[in-house]
Structure formats: C-alpha cells, structure tokens
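Entry 12.
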Amino acid sequence: HPACADSSDGGIALIIEPDSVSQIEWYGFEGNYSIDNVPAGNYFFEMTDVNGCVQTGEIQLIEPLPLSVEIFNETICPGEFADVEVAVTGGTGACTIDWMDLDQNNVPVGSYVLTAHDENNCMTSLEFEIENYPPLNVEAFITNPISGFDGSIDIEITGGLPPYDCVWNSKDHTLDLLNLFPGIYHCLITDAAGCQTTYSAELIGLSLENCFDQALFYPNPFHDVLVIQMNDQLPFFIYDSLGKLVYSGTNPASREIINTSEWSIGIYLMKSESMTIRLIKS
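Predicted 3D structure (tokens):
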C-alpha cells in the first residue's frame, strides 16, 4: 500500500502456486507478476494458464488518511505565554512533532512553523501565530452619594473576550452598582478567556450644600425640564445612552433650564472637566 496520502509508491506482487500461468495482463498498466510505483486504487488483472484458461482478479491498494495537525490556545492574555495543545489526525502509527526549539508550554507572541512526521516518514507542516487578546479597558461613570446611600458606579469594559464578569468587594456580580454609601469599591474583572484586570473607585459623600458648590442637576429623574445650577463657568456635555451628544453649554454660574420634552426616556450622562453625573429621564 502507498506509505503516505497522495503518494505513488504502492506496489503489487502476485504469488501463484502452482505456477502454470503463461501470461498476466494488467488493465491500464505494464507489468507481469508485479507492478510498482502506483497510487491507491483498484487494480485489475487477467491470467492465462498453459491450457488457455483465463482468470481475472482485482486488488485494492489503500492509502492512509492525510496527515494533519491542528493547534489550540493560540490566543493569550497580554503578558502571558501560550500553552499550545496539538491534535494530529491521519498518517500511520505514532506521530513526532518538531517544535523548532520552542517550548510547547511557554510560547510567546509571534509567528511559528511546526512539522509532524508519522512512522512512514510522511510529513506535514503548519504555520501558526500566537496573538494577544486586546487589553481589558475600563471606563467608569461615578455618581457620588448626596443623601448617604444614593451613589452609583457604572462601568463599561472593552477589549479582551466578552462576556465579562465583575466581582466587587461587596460580593456583587454586576457592571453597575446602585444605592452606594461613601467608600472605596474594588472590582476584579475577568473575561471569557480568563484574562483579568482590576478597577477601584472612591465615592465621596456630598451634602446638598457641597453639591451646590460643584453642580446641581434637578429634578433627577426628570421629565420635560432639567435645571442646571453651577458655581463655576465650566463647559458641560450631556450624552444619551448611545453616546450621542444631546446638549452642551457653559453654565453662567447661575440657573439654566433645559427643555427635555423631545429627549427619549432613559439614562444620560453629564460630563464636565471635573465630574460625571448620571441623569435619568422617566
């Protein structure tokens, strides 16, 4: 049989006992008692003995399945090394992998080639690349508590491999924390690939007077009108939940009334140089 897939090193040798054959013909091939260097397939022959009797026969040559190599774990977390797993199919017998001086369990980011040989010395090669998942990035929108327990932290995560799990020191598993007291909050973020990063935020308790020292947006939740009162002439911007800018201005250190009757119901974020405040239209 052929030693490798798609090879033409197969052969057939006929042994006839007692040997009274005067002629052997192969269909489509030149040969007598044997044919050599042929691929897998069905081979037909006809024998004629010394008495003129004719007998036909068929012999099948079978080749092994193609030798194939597949790798796993080729994408890793930033700063780590890949523990590459290999699956070999096809070929004959045990397979030997040549890693080209690589440590299979500690492969850094880069492009590589490995080769595989089976017991018949059939060979295949595979080019592969070890890549990093994009780094995990965290953006947070914080509302400091005014009445003692109405603070919030709303985080958005990009990079890595979604979905994400966020475990806070409060033992909550969520991206958004509500009804928070003043204090320090820590979160361990893990993506679907096991890559991790941490996030911390400190919420500062504000009195109503302190809010007036910075900014006051009321009522919150609001309906058709939103009132802004700031003591600093700072540019501010209001975005909807899709990140679209819906309003911007510079408060003249006094009260400003915004008509929000055309705004959609949902969550909005007011951003200025020194703060981010979450607003809700109900």
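Annotation: The longest strand covers residues 123-132. The first helix runs from residue 208 to 214.
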